[in-house]
Amino acid sequence: MSGRRRGGWVCRGVRWGELGVGLVWGKGGERRERGLGRGLELGFRVVGVRGCLGARGNVCPLGAVIGARSTGGLCAECARLDRAHSVAADTVADDPRTFRVYLAWFGPGMVKVGITAEERGPARLLEQGAVVFCWLGRGPLMAARRTEELLRTALGVPDRIPYARKRAVRSALPPRAERAAEIEELYGRAVALEGWPQSLERVAFTAVDHAGVFGLDGLAPATGVVSELVDGGQVAGRLVAAAGPDLHLATADGGLVVLDTRLMTGWEFIGLEEGDGTETSGGAITVPVRELPGGDVQDVQDGLF
To answer: Is residue 240 pLDDT above 60, yes or no?
Structure first.
């Protein structure tokens, strides 16, 4: 089947909340969310072309079609508009909310520093797929930014880590106590630094571990990663883990394929069970998949916010 279906539900990515993770769909001004519990059998076919989602709740003025391998979901014009109003941009300096500085751990030697609005709680850490995190401090936006820069410079920790590196270690994580110990050691070095802004309040150490939430305990190594979606292609599998935007799907042929849901945004889908007259492929994945020999692959970096 080809051609764009008009008026269908368009994927807007995943949303992490108190009840777990769900796929968000939009049609006009309507929004729906489908929970993604482990063990769920997923099956859908891609329809038509991939459209820009638009920035800040607005429809894309260009009605642009975007590339299948883009993880941003926006055309260049909407991406500029979105960035201009992002907390990550230096153009936003007067946000009155309280912000928190955090350390996020993804695997041995893989720790990043970042900031997030306090009102969002741990949502940003779940969205990034942080296996463990801890808060460092809380205060005004500019104080949080200065502290983030101080930590990057003094401790040599980055503000982003490529998703390929995150995926490569999820099936071979050290025990929970070792994970907490590594981030606690870095926390101690961070709070002992001089130069923290006076308006940023230090937060006592607590390691929050998301391995259970993500379903990483006993996770097998991934055998492949979906590289792009295509019109008429299908994805099917049983959800065994979800970390950040990544869904780990056990496939009918015994593989374990990672689907980055950022590749789903802007596409329309139909469920395989809808029986639209198109011949299926026995629950197989028929979109392009990049094999992962030894789990060593390259990928683009994730965004900061």
So the answer is: yes
